[in-house]
Design brief:
Strand content: 35-45%
Distance between the termini: 19 Å
Largest sheet: 13 strands, mixed
Radius of gyration: 18 Å
Helix content: 10-25%
Number of helices: 6
Strand order of the largest sheet: 7-8-9-10-11-1-2-3-4-5-6-12-13
Structural class: alpha+beta
Order of helices and strands: HHHEEEEEEHEEHHEEEEE
Shape: globular
């Protein structure tokens, strides 16, 4: 799909219109677990002494838990304007599928929560604001239809992709020790490279990361991560930047996006599945719905 077609998909389709609608007002204009780390060797469920290794291993170790509950917060800032999205839901690392219910701010393309079911390379959206989609129906999108690979465009960064981005960590230092909800955590700060994260994730899990790598204007993405003694990811904050005015590198045209994902209840039973086929429509490149 060409860049112009991706832009049409974002501008006229699905829930990407959520963020697009809010950011138009503001700006004026995943991966499941694998058992091998960056070295290709199995990753032990233990926090590595080396900060960079610890951060890069976190997606695998977190995936070994089998499941988690996630909460998300996405904040966009452009000039003096700010918008916030929040959500939450379960993720199944075994089946590599998750569900988020996202609360949208005023000015979005839809009212009420947007429900997102996501897997590597694909996302289903209900109450997305897409034109011509009947209430209760779901829109199905390939992440390659979204210029940011669904990293932020639907009002949330899914937990699997947020963690997978850490595979591309290039710098990491220990910022301190903190206790959160009674759990001792190691706090790290650093930068990551989404293109290298995509290489490390591979396959469909890397599609969204690679799309995002070509879209965001700041390539060294700042992050903070909190890991427990087992090396599991409890919280990650990632800061993305993109041009609110297409092609502009002017600082005043840049939109800052802060994505926060928190994980808890590791290993608890979750139930997530794709929507029934009869309730799903796919969007053509023009953004027009068509039966699945």
């Amino acid at each position: 799909m060409t860049t112009s077609r991706q832009t049409r998909a974002i501008g006229s389709a699905a829930a990407a219109a959520l963020l697009a609608a809010v950011l138009t007002g503001c700006g004026g204009g995943s991966a499941g677990s694998s058992d091998a780390g960056a070295s290709g060797s199995p990753v032990a469920d233990k926090l590595a002494d080396d900060p960079l290794t610890a951060v890069r291993n976190a997606p695998d170790i977190t995936g070994h838990t089998g499941s988690a509950q996630a909460t998300t917060q996405l904040t966009t800032v452009s000039g003096s304007k700010k918008a916030s999205f929040s959500g939450g839901g379960p993720y199944d690392y075994v089946k590599r599928i998750g569900r988020l219910e996202v609360q949208v701010p005023p000015g979005a393309a839809t009212h009420g929560p947007v429900v997102e079911v996501y897997e590597p390379g694909v996302v289903f959206l209900q109450n997305s604001g897409a034109k011509g989609v009947a209430p209760g129906k779901w829109v199905k999108l390939d992440v390659r239809q979204l210029a940011d690979g669904n990293l932020i465009s639907n009002g949330a960064t899914d937990p699997a992709t947020a963690a997978a981005a850490l595979r591309g960590a290039q710098q990491a230092t220990v910022a301190g020790d903190e206790t959160v909800d009674g759990i001792p955590l190691k706090h790290y700060k650093g930068t990551l490279d989404l293109a290298k994260a995509a290489d490390a994730a591979g396959g469909q899990a890397g599609f969204g990361l690679r799309m995002a790598a070509s879209t965001f204007t700041v390539k060294d993405v700042p992050f903070e991560a909190w890991l427990d003694a087992q090396g599991r990811l409890h919280r990650v904050i990632e800061n993305f930047t993109f041009a609110g005015v297409a092609g502009s590198k002017d600082p005043k045209d840049q939109v800052q996006v802060t994505s926060t994902v928190s994980l808890s209840d590791f290993g608890t039973a979750v139930s997530v599945s794709e929507p029934a086929g009869g309730d799903v429509v796919e969007l053509k490149d023009s953004g027009t719905p068509s039966p699945k």
